[in-house]
Amino acid sequence: MIKVGFSAVALLLALGTGQALAADAAEGEKVFRRFCTACHITSAEGPKRLGPTLAGLVGRKSGSVEGFRYSEANKNANITWSAQTLDPYLKDPKAVIPGTIMAFAGVKKDDERENLISYLQTLK
Questions:
Q1: Angstrom distance (rounded) from CA 7 to CA 55
Q2: Is the whole-model pTM more than 0.85?
Q3: Which carries the bigger pLDDT value, residue 97 or residue 15?
């Protein structure tokens, strides 16, 4: 079986409709500022906020930032963050990790989520 990333799948689906949807990290940064900056930072070190840093998020296990106090649900979710796992989580966090204490309703628009994921993938 051939594995393709979320963006490639979205692009292929969009091509069938005649609309090209290419993820845009710059647009994703705008989405991040709108939805995420109140609780999260993007640098490995910096001022503590309500949520953990999102630096290095892609490829990291859920509930694993050292020194951050996670809910039991998040610590036990055993999710490795990738485009495929972030998409449903960012759409509806409480559906993916019931019991999470993250007070966020989700990013409902597909294109905004895709751009946000593209931006999150740039954070090292």
A1: 20
A2: no
A3: 97
